[in-house]
Amino acid sequence: MTPGKRKVAVVGVALADCGRLDTVTPYALHAQAARRALADSGLDRSVIDGFASAGLGTLAPVEVADYLGLRPSWVDSTSVGGATWEVMASHATDAIAAGHANAVLLVYGSTARADIKAGRRTSHLSFGTSGPAQFEAPYGHTLIAKYAMAARRHMHQYGTTVEQLADIAVQARTNAAHNPHALYRTPLSVDDVLSGPLIADPFTTLHCCVRSDGGCAVLLAAEEYTTDAARPPVWVLGTGAAVSHSAMSEWEDFTVTPAAVSGRLAFERAGVTPRDIDVAQLYDAFTYMTLVTLEDLGFCAKGEGGAFASGGRLTTGGALPVNTDGGGLSACHPGMRGLFLLVEAVRQLRGEAEEGRQVHRPDGRLPQLAVASGTGGWFCSSGTVVLGRDRP
Predict the structure, then answer these.
(1) Cβ–Cβ contacts within 10 Å for residue 79, how many?
(2) Cβ–Cβ under 8 Å, residues 51 and 343
(3) Helix axes 143-158, 287-297, angle to 10 degrees
């Protein structure tokens, strides 16, 4: 943080109901998450003068703020896919630090699963056929195919194996087993992952995120509000954002993502290194996303992600606990999951996770530093946030 500017903390987090929700609207999930996050903070709603939302309504965040009865003087509707919420958190932190807002509410809700089940929408084959996409969409280049191609390139270039990718899904399920809110908690084996239906080579079903409904919210506030908050503050130490390509043909290296930039910026601004991090929450729509993000954030060298992520390292009792709620692979994935990463990171730093899921340092203390890194599009965008228990 720049000297002389206000420090910024997360003062409230909450999940809305998540899982299979056939009778609620996404607006209701936004409202439920917002109320719960405000209650978690212990602050009065009058302190909220900033609002950030994306993915719902024609004029997001105007429609959602109106639904919630808020009249913010600072707003953000950035939409860069799954990385949206980390990028929004970066914007909100800068705004609060500069005095443009005092408390900013980030909120998300989606009934993606229920909408498909009810026939209100269909599963998208592509994001569209105009602009740069017109040169790829006619050939059936779907979203999952893009990720699968990137994974295959990593396997070809570095010898990464499909078993190593499958082990990431296994470890996510191990973490989910201790999360009562996770959609799937039954243990998995590598063979279970490999024997599933093939979706896009090399991904079988269990290499891919679950489809769920749900929502969550995060309340960020200036340092002077933390004394009145009900929970210990979790400080925003550093943030970073980056975008890369829109068309796959413009992606210079399928094995390097924008997280290589957003992570470097976030760690530099926080004054820490990947070695200092106690727990990581990474976007995992597919197993390869976890592996390559670990590399790009600097937890291991490029090409070493397969070996690094193996052997239980990513479980809550491992050397680097990752996606401690089960992640998008097992817990929930209602669309743009990035905000869930921030919620879980904060809960881990506060020591609020359930027994078996709460991370502890080797000396028995609670984790001190966490990183949340979101990915958007087909590795098109990245946002990274470093959080800490101690005031910067």
Answers:
(1) 16
(2) no
(3) 60
Beta strand 369-376 with 381-388 is antiparallel
Task: Write the secondary structure of 83-130 as one string of H (helix), E (strand) and C (coil).
Answer: CHHHHHHHHHHHHHHCCCCCEEEEEEEECHHHHHHCCCCCCCCCCCCC
Nearest 10 degrees: Cα torsion 387, 179, 230, 237: 0
Which tens digit of pLDDT belongs to each residue from 26-70? 999 999 999 999 999 999 999 999 999 998 888 889 999 999 999
Q: Is 323 left (phi over 0), alpha (psi -120 to 50) or beta?
A: left
Q: Tell me which H or E stretch contains 307.
A: helix 305-308
CA 377 to chain centre: 13
Written as one letter, the residue type at 266 is A
Give SS3 for 150.
helix
pLDDT tens across 162-186, in order? 999 999 999 999 999 999 999 999 9
Instruction: With beta carbons less than 8 A apart as the criterion, state whether 249 and 371 touch.
Output: no
Residues 6+ apart with CB under 8 A from 44: none
Q: Which residue has the tokens 């530093």?
A: 369
Tell me the DSSP string of 271-302: T--GGG-SEEEE--SBHHHHHHHHHHHTSS-T
Q: What is the token pair recorded at 322?
A: 């990752």
Which pair of structure tokens corresponds to residue 302?
A: 């490029």
Peptide bond into 61 cis (omega under 30): yes
In this structure, is the dihedral angle defined by the CA atoms of residues 311, 312, 318 and 324, taken in order, positive or negative? positive
Q: Tell whether the model's pLDDT for residue 130 goes beyond 90.
A: no
